[in-house]
Structures are given as structure tokens and as C-alpha cells.
Amino acid sequence: MLYLCTGNILRWGGVAAFLAVLLLVSQAEAQGRGRGGERREGGQVTNQLRSVPIDAITSPLFIESDLGVIRDRVDLDEGQGLIIETLLADHVEAFNEGVQVLRVQIQEARMRILEGEEPEGARQQREAYESQMQDMREDMTERLRDAETSEDRLLIRGEFADAMRELTRVYRSTTEEGVEVLDWGAFLSQQSQLLRTWLETRRALEEEFSSSSTLVLEESQFDSWNAAMQAVRRRDMPGTGVLGGESIDLSIVLEGLELDSETRQALVPMLEQYAASIDGHIQARTSFLHEASPAISDTIGEGSWNRMRAIIQQEAEVRAGLRDENLSWFDSFSLVLPDDTSRLFQERVRLSQFGNIWRPGRLERMLESALQMEGLEEDQVAAIRSMEESCIANLMPLKSRVEAAYRFESPSQWAIDQQQKWVGSFNGAVVDPRIEGEAGREARDGLAKSEQACMKSLEDILGDRYSSLPGARNTPRRDGPSSGRSSESQRRRDELYKRFDRNGDGRLDADERDQMRREFQQERGRP
User: What are phi and psi of 46, to 5 degrees?
Assistant: First the structure.
């Protein structure tokens, strides 16, 4: 295959150079018109407007590797497999090309609407890009006709997709530098229309692939096809979820457990029910995220902070619905699995989704270090092991309470985080206050006090050697003012922990510190 190695790459390089030259022309034209680089709203300059995220609406539902998912679940004959492979490859090609066109259209809208009449240099850039894209399509079509195997066709399409992405990248890089925003509202309105048009195109492409594929299936294969589509939609759960419990496919966790054949077979009906139940929530989330992109574009253009807050709240509710359904099934699977397997299943899910609560903390690390100390008496080792067993047993229900509180609080906390990100795009907007739930505070306090009691017991066992343990010198919070710290300083410190220590582990991790910095910057009016 010489697609990227000979004539096309040479033509590519020539067009890239041509686009770069045209950039200088368009920039000179813009400077000649005296355009400024500031964005204006109502006569006031603002530099905090955020770009509307389009990742969700441009992320594909179907990718070429989904052919393996389909083959694993649907017993296809050779002819069916070849047809669906071709349909899938055509869909992926059309989808990727549509995304590239959308990105270029948005960039062109910036040039035309925000800069006024399209400069001659920009027009020549666009025409050169469109001409090169057409040449690439024709070259790919000719090579596909000559290809002898499906592997050859797959490679050709992959090379075309790579070349198309690179050409688009070059085009966008040569145009973005010359764009200076003036009429932001007009651009947002045009962008919203482009996104809605693409959303209609996307739905049509997905429907075309699905309906065309089912036409070659026997009626007896429909249930298996539906199961394959559910698996495809679950594929992106880890990458799309933001709430604890929203971003894990429980069927994959169960698949990774060492289960005997009888248990695995007994789980089949539950797994089928889980797949069908969670699929409705996944589709609801996907549909919302797709519709949200043009809606946010409109909302920023209107300057409606109340509408933006409503969109954020609706997204939090949709995500929480999926999260709650997933965790409900987590509880159900935990009940039916054998005891040892159930504990392993719960551990893997909790560490993945609520790691800040369930992963070993300071107490566990201190106990581990204590047992590794040299020169301990046998009765000390026995006392530490006994204390470890009782402490861990006592902490489990307390951590469960903290997790339950976190589940309850996290959607509203996430919504506040989103408001913090968007507030700079709306004049006079104010972020809703954070409200800590009483149940959450009590759960975190109870866990902290229990850990402190265990540490005190460990100190009683080790005596002076306790101070050599990692973390022993750090006085736990909520245990009264520490030495050398004024009561006012301690009060401010406790308030910071109450506000930002979301998981209640008594310390601020990297994410919590980042959130604290962002909020303080927003409160002080810094970008």
C-alpha cells in the first residue's frame, strides 16, 4: 500500500504549503480591515467565553472493531458476515467524513460570520482543501475496486481516514490563527444550526447501518443482534461516566471473575436483564448529551444563565439515573454470587468507582507498617492483628455510610462544579452555593472518629515506637486544635476540609486540591 507514501502525500504536502501561504494573505487582509481580537457582548469586552464541547456529538456509536462484538454474539454465515463488514466499514467512513466536514463548517462559520465577508485568501484555502478531499475520495474508490481481500479494503479505508484527518488538521491550523472574534452571538447561532443538522445526519447514518444489517439477518438472529447492539452501546461507559457507579460495565467485571460453569450459567438470565435495563439509561444519556451541544451553543448566545443551570441540572439527573440503575444491579449481583466471589466483586467495583473511600488509607498503611516492625513481642503482634481485624470490620459499615452519602451528594456537587466551569461565559452569573448534607457530614465524622480510636489503640500497643510509623505525626482533623495552630487557623482549616474533602478521608487529594484552586480563582475574579 503506497497511499501515504507516494503521490498522495506529495500532493498533501503541496496543499499544506499552499494553505500556509494563503494564511499570510488572509491575515494581511484581516489586518487591513482593522479587525480587533476582542470578543464583545453588550459593549463590554469579555475573555472568558468557553468553546461549546462537541466531543459527545462527534464520537461514533459504531467503530470497525465492533464487527468482533457482533460476531461474538450473532452466529453469522460467511455471506452475512461479509455484508455486515462492508456496511460497517462504509458507515465508519461516512461518519468520519461527516465529522471532518462539520469541523470545517464550524471553522468556516467563524471566518464568515465573525470576520464578515470571507477574505479571498480564506476562500482559496477552503477551495484547495475541498479539491484535495475530492481527489482523495476518488483515489480511495479506485483502490477499493482493485482490492482483493477484506483486509486490503480495511487498510485502504484506514489510510484514507488518517489522510483525511491530517488534511483537515492542516486546514484548520492555517485558518484558526487568522480568526478574530467580534460577533460571538452570531457565530454561536450558526454553530447551533450546524450541530443540529449534523445530529440529523448522524441519526440517519446509524439508522441506515442498523436497518441494512438487519435485512440480511434471519428472524432467529434478531435477539442476538439486539444483544450485540446493547454491548456496543455499553462500550463507552468508562469514558462517558462522571459519577461514581456510572462508568463501569458490571458484565465485564463479572466476566473477569473466576466462576464455575454452574454459577456462570445461572447468571445468564440476570446478565440479559441487566443489559436490557441499563441500555435504556445509556440511550437516554447519549440522547441528552447529543442534544446538549446545540442547546448550550444557543444558551451562551442568548446569555441565559438560568437556562444553562437547567441544562446542567438535567444532565446531572440523567447521569444519576444511569448511576442508580447500575448500582442497583451491583447490589443484586452481590447478593447472588458465592460469598468469596461476592466480596471480590464488591471490592473491584468499589475500588474502581469509589476508590477515595475504599482504597487503603492512613490507618491501613500504619497497621501494615506496624506488622513489619522488627523486634516486636509476640503479644504485640497478636494484639495488632486482633486490633486490625476488629478495626477493619468496624470501618466497613462506616465506609458504606460515607459511600451512600457520597452517592446522594455527588450529582449536586458535580452540577456546582459544572457551573464553576461555565459561569465566566455569562455576564453577572452567580454559582449556586454548596450545601453539605447533614447525613454526609455525620458519616464522615463517624468514620474519622473510628479511625482515630484505632490509631490510639495502636499507639497504646507500640508505645514510643508508634511515632516512627508513616502518618503518625499527622494529627487527624476534627480532633480539636493541633499544637502550634491557633483556634482561628484550625477553624479555617476545618472549613476548607468540610468544603473540599468530598470523600471524607481526612485529606485533600489532587482532584480536591485542583477544585479548591479553581473555586478560589473564580471567587477572586481570576481567569
Answer: -135, 140
**Strand (E) or helix (H) holding 189:** helix 184-215
Give CA separation, 291 vs 103, 294, 441, in Å: 17, 6, 36
pLDDT for 229: 97
- Residue stretches of the chain with pLDDT short of 70: 1-50, 113-126, 150, 171-183, 473-495, 497-499, 501-507, 509-511, 518, 520-527
Q: How far apart are the first and last CA of the chain?
A: 49
pLDDT at residue 139 in the model? 80
Predicted confidence at residue 313, as pLDDT, reads 97
- C-alpha distance from residue 130 to each of 104, 346, 357, 477 (Å): 10, 54, 53, 63
CA dihedral 442, 445, 449, 451 (to 10 degrees): 110
Number of other CB atoms surrounding residue 199 within 10 Å: 17
Q: How far apart are CA 448 and CA 155, in angstroms?
A: 57
pTM for the structure as a whole: 0.72
C-alpha cell at 357: 473511600
> What residue spans define the domains of the chain?
7-235, 236-353, 354-523
Domain 236-353 listed as CATH 1.20.120: yes
Q: Cell 462484538 maps to which residue?
A: 69
* Closest to 212 (Cα-Cα) out of 59, 91, 63: 91
How far apart CA 352 and CA 347 sit, in angstroms, is 8
Helix (H, G, I), strand (E, B) or coil at 41: strand
At position 341, the amino acid (one-letter code) is T
pLDDT, residue 473, reads 63
* DSSP secondary structure string for all residues of 426-495: STT--PPPP---HHHHHHHHHHHHHHHHHHHHHHHHHGGGGGGSTTTTSPPTTSSPPTTS-HHHHHHHHH
Own/partner long-range contacts of 484-492 (Cβ < 8 Å, ≥24 apart): none
